[in-house]
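Q: You know discrete backbone vocabularies at least as well as I do. I have my own habits and do not want them to colour yours. No explanation is needed for now; the record alone will do.
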Amino acid sequence: MAERGCPLEAVPLPAEVRESLAELELELSEGDITQKGYEKKRGKLLARYVPLAQGVDPSLQAETRIPGPSQATAPAPEQQKMRPSHARDERFRSDVHTEAVQAALAKYKERKMPMPSKRRSVLTHMAVEAYTPPADLHSAPPDVTTGLAQHQHTYCERPQLASMRGAPRGGSRSVLETAGGVPVSSRVSSKIQQLLNTLKKPKRPPLKEFFVDDLEEVLEVQQPDPGQPKPEGGQTAVLKGELLAVGSTWPPSLLATLQQWGTTQPKAPCLTALDTTGKAVYTLTYGKLWSRSLKLAYTLLNKLTSKNEPLLKPGDRVALVFPNSDPVMFTVAFYGCLLAELVPVPIEVPLTRKDAGSQQVGFLLGSCGVALALTTDACQKGLPKAQTGEVAAFKGWPPLTWLVIDGKHLTKPPKDWHPSAQDAGAGTAYIEYKTSKEGSTVGVAVSHASLLAQCQALTQACGYSEAETLTNVLDFKRDAGLWHGVLTSVMNRMHVVSIPYALMKANPLSWIQKVCAYKARAALVKSRDMHWSLLAQRGQRDVSLSSLRLLVVADGANPWSISSCDAFLNVFQARGLRPEVICPCASSPEALTVAIRRPPDLGGPPPRRAVLSMSCLSHGVIRLDAEEKLSVLTVQDVGQVMPGADVCVVKVEGTPYLCKTDEVGEICVNSSATATAYYGLLGITKNIFETVPVTAGGAPISDRPFTRTGLLGFIGPDNLVFVVGKLDGLMVVGVRRHNADDIVATALAVEPMKFVYRGRIAVFSVTVLHDDRIVLVAEQRPDASEEDSFQWMSRVLQAIDSIHQVGVYCLALVPANTLPKAPLGGIHVSETKQRFLEGMLHPCNVLMCPHTCVTNLPKPRQKQPEVGPASMVVGNLVAGKRIAQASGRELSHLEDSDQARKLLFLPDVLRWRASTTPEHLLFLLLSAKGTVTSTTTCIQLHKKAERVAAALMEKARLTTGAHVALVYPPGVDLIAAFYGCLYCGCVPVTVRPPHPQNLATTLPTVKMIVEVSKSACVLTTQAITRLLKSKEALAAVDVRTWPTILDTDDIPKKKVASIFRPPSPDMLAYLDFSVSTTGILAGVKMSHAATSALCRSIKLQCELYPSRQIAICLDPYCGLGFALWCLCSVYSGHQSVLVPPPELETNVSLWLWAVSQYKARVTFCSYSVMEMCARGLGAQTAVLRVRAVRAWREPRTSPSSRKPSRGAPPPAMKGVNLSCVRTCMVVAEERPRIALTQSFSKLFRDLGLPARAVSTTFGCRVNVAICLQGTAGPDPTTVYVDMRALRHDRVRLVERGSPHSLPLTESGKILPGVKVIIAHSETRGPLGDSHLGEVWVSSPHSATGYYTVYGEEGLHADHFSARLSFGDTQTVWARTGFLGFLRRTELTDASGERHDALYVVGSLDETLELRGMRYHPVDIETSVVRAHRSIAECAVFTWTNLLVVVVELDGLEQDALDLVALVTNVVLEEHHLVVGVVVIVDPGVIPINSRGEKQRMHLRDGFLADQLDPIYVAYNM
């Protein structure tokens, strides 16, 4: 000690000063005092004894006390005796750890992490804004996804203020703007800014080596670092324990011993049970134990029958269900079973039906064939009961008979009855349960011979002698508690005082008081019990431990046991505890006791400890660490090998080669005292219990098999065994191994500890993206504030990163007492892991750090310099790929009459129909009840249109070419107003009316369209006129600036003098306005020629004639919905049954009923309608199928007065039969939603819907109808493409069900007259059919251009007049803005040609460019929605290269945080992307337009402006 320069050596300290110092140490370790306060108080205490070195800071003097290399070896025995002379110069591991943690955190002082934000209702303490640190908002955030190092010069990190708590909110509130000019709240952006700050510098140097996961995406595999430590020692030898002293004194079996003591020493005490106050309630003598065990054995064998057969036969397994407070009855039951030749299976008492791990215990009982459970009267009364009063059936448990074994229930055996004499044979004596790392429970079978050998070995190793007293704090049902406290004790006629767990919780000193009271010679504890007693001992002066000769520390192999042992000795040495008494041991369920430290009087060598480099340990190499004082692990020996055992250390993975002397491996034991098998599991039994270790040359080291212990360690000097971890707690991250217990120890050393409970921390790993990821879960104290807990979490992350050089993937805090408990306190880790993976953990705080942990992401894609046009063409020819081009049928061959040529304009067609077939019915409008609210014939429509035209010319005094806004609900008035505008030469603009209940958000859109379209007049109904001028409207818009508003409900019956005829077919017919999913309001111009061409193509594709009826359930305001509702019936003459989509909110079955009643062969709907039907009617197909009682026409004349409920169809809505449908087309501007269309087809198959009827259409702004299935032609085809190839703009077809496969269905048949080509969106060259590119279209019905693109006029000038850069450079194409590909199928179309299918993949504007690859939001969203049942909807977008995922929570608010980890996991696993921000919101927050499409850009703007009122926002570090 002297060479460490510690001035305390010279001056022995008085006992009271030592005690005060020990208390001070304890306060520091508990977090009751800061490091600074500790140094100050300690300095005061020692001031009289330590002369201060001149000019040296006391805290620096303290630093010199860190252990040097001398500590790696054990101090000499005489130095041991000097221990009382100073309080603390022998540094304990906990202090080294605390210092390490503090040094690690000092490095991170400058780094500030963004704190997650919770909704106010969830917060209990300070408002979130109060601790959002201001950040530098003006610099452009760096691209954190590629080339991290390149950006360091653009960014200057601002030092954070030391204390941010009082930072004023408005301090640096400069408002950012997004691309769309939306102001951004600094609260959200500053957090993202901080997140970017934490991500700026790469954590680890990128690795250059890769393995190919597939052709497309290459996951990094961590190659071993050439500089990593490697073992250099020689090969270890087998370590042989001392011989087991086999003398004539050993009894032939344990039962023979019991009989001997029970008959010769019946009054000798065997076991004393205590109650929760510490009073001895019962002492079991050896005589009583023998007689009661005999009674139980007799009862079990002779008094239990089933169908006149004995219920049990020798060798049957019996469950022992006894509480921890009843060792007496347990011991009787255990020995009773042994006497009856039955196999006891001790398990925990199931307190509820959902105990942690209870189901797994049930599987164990089932696999052991257990049919009988023994218990006590009191315990049986406390078990959950079924209604019959019987014990409830627990989930996963076999049917059990419960037998109460209290004295009155047992039968005394006849005098001449004796149990069969038992020798210690190979038969199973008992089965102990063990829970594996994954949570499965197995039964470890111990034979009679092993049981006897274990008792003999323990007796010899511990020096047990007759009539000694042992105090046992451990669980007597299993492990060391059973081996010492129930088995070995009986062999040596010892007296065991059993301390129940409940008593330890109430009075942690109780075991020491009992040692004192009973003058116990031996005690059996865990390090936790020593730690608890340290906390409670302050007021106790009268306890003495001088009687103890043996203090067995059962978990001596744990990393924190050394500090507990040292601290305990430090305090209790003054109370008679001798240092050599402390005997740590190591054990495992498979090998039973592996090693135990012997007291010197039994010939044990002096104890040793080793200070090991944590970094080398993670590579499996042992290096004593002298220089690096922080990331070290101090371990103590667990003594020598057990008598009669051989021990070796083998490699953890692969063939069990012997390790080198400086290498960590798994300890293996060959001994007669190990367990024999996992009951009923032959395969894993062979791996564990029959291992044959081999030398480096491959030669077996022994002819006898060894048992693997699951303990990781090495053999140290003096042949002492050192354990550094357990296989169950091993986490392999990259190529390095980390131990869960070590990480727990680091977390415990982070000061202050007052935010979480000390013993309630679980660490485990989950596999995400082919690697283990570390998760740390802790219970948060109820009084901890949001900010404090977050700070603690940040510090834990930094400490673990610094000390272990490994990132924590997820750190979660849960409310107090919510983690699943193991039977005797502690946390049930596997159950916690299961809950985490299932999203059932319900944390109150979560911190995810995927950016730092996930280092094996695929390499970002580097964009290659573009190849020239010629080489592309040649390349495609060489590869045998054709240019991706296709077209619909030629229009010129299909004209069926001269009529179409004559009637070029729609007004002419309507006049012609009114004169030739005036009474032909064109439109039928249905109400929610199924009644027809209005019908319109050709002549009626013509006359209504004339009245509107007259009103526009006379009342509004409009001139030719004036724009008129039509603001109508879906109905016939809208159609009449449209034709009225055409009759007088005005240009109609259809506008969705504002929603009366939601004027604030819907009216501004109406006003915007009216203004942007430069409408000179608004045509509408009386009700909407009132709404537009109401007080409520005044709050949303300036009502004085409306143009002329004409109410068409009561215009006079007037004719126009002459109907306007356009001078040229290219004259503007109408404007089509719509908001795209990217939030852009765009109006396109449709000429008269394009309008007629559109109607002609649809007529030919769908075979529409005047005799046909079609049903339409679409919004009539834009795109194909408008064309079908207003244009096609007039052009083709067919009858349209109009079903307004808003009516489905009242009666969801209306559309399907209409299709059935009117025998419609063709029907159109939107995805939102289809979804409404699938959700609302999916379970009611049987009700709908029932034939209607009344005739189907009856409701028209006498509408039912009963208001139909939303779910069930009204009385007239039964008898739905969909067998008439030839084709049901979904009108959409997106990728076909294959899951929805398939589930719709399956659900309504029962109503006769043909399997192949459902198909999709595709149109966009530049051309509203490009594809439409129609009634003829081949069925739509579905292909499966590789999602990873798609990210690289390549199309690779794969088999259904192959990994990463994405199903895509054809978007309908290309319309007549339409040509499609796939072009490169940047080079504008044509692409081959194996490429994903932009869909370009050439067609007579394309729009002629944008009237306006609100907000982005300059970007879209070339959308309607694009030409290819090579190849066919003459054709003028319109760019759709959608990505897709063409495939030539095996099917043939009507002309006999092979059919070309167009597959639309997604909108170009919506794609996310991340890591150099192209992602489609819908793919990520599909994965996220699958992640948890509470996710109702999801939308993703990017901001500054961070991926933001917004999920709608359909569940309780407190479950919100479960989703953060699941969302992050699934996106990493399936898309190789790191989620930057997870936002959890209420259902309905994600905006969806009338077509059922998500408005992701609106959502993004709302998020950045902090308008979503999220439940929780998690910023992934």
